[in-house]
Write a structure and sequence with these properties.
- By secondary structure, the protein is of the alpha+beta class.
- The protein has a single domain, classed as Yope Regulator, Chain: A (2-Layer Sandwich), CATH 3.30.1460.
- Helix content is 35%, strand content 35%.
- Strands 1-2-3-4-6-5 form a 6-stranded antiparallel beta sheet.
- A hairpin with a 2-residue loop joins strand 3 and strand 4.
- The mean pLDDT is 94.
Length: 113
């Protein structure tokens, strides 16, 4: 299964990277065939063709996000990862509205284990 198609998602990737790459300790690499973003080598988000997967979202924040965006748990092949939420974005201009949640996920990855 292909999760990410650069030709379709390039505007989203470029907008996302413009925001997150200046954050301290952010690195990127491919995971699941997708651009993935790590803080202190711990995954906080990655992109798929139809949106952004945020790896650390509290229940209360999921409910708030669901008021505006279509959400679903990330499906890795046959395995569902409930904690990782896929926020579907039809327009990269909507990215700014989810960035506070991406930032929370990033900050959680920087916190001591």
């Amino acid at each position: 299964m292909q999760y990410y198609v650069e030709e379709q998602a390039r505007p989203l990737r470029e907008a996302f990277e413009e925001i997150v790459m200046p954050w301290p300790d952010v690195t990127t690499r491919a995971m699941f065939g997708c651009p993935a973003y790590l803080a202190d080598e711990r995954l906080f988000a990655f992109l798929v063709t139809e949106g952004v997967v945020i790896t650390q979202v509290r229940k209360r924040d999921r409910e708030t996000l669901a008021e505006t965006f279509e959400l679903e748990p990330f499906q890795a092949g046959e395995r569902t990862i409930e904690r990782w939420v896929l926020v579907k974005l039809s327009d990269p201009a909507m990215l700014g509205r989810i960035m506070p949640y991406v930032r929370k996920s990033y900050q959680q990855m920087l916190s001591p284990l």
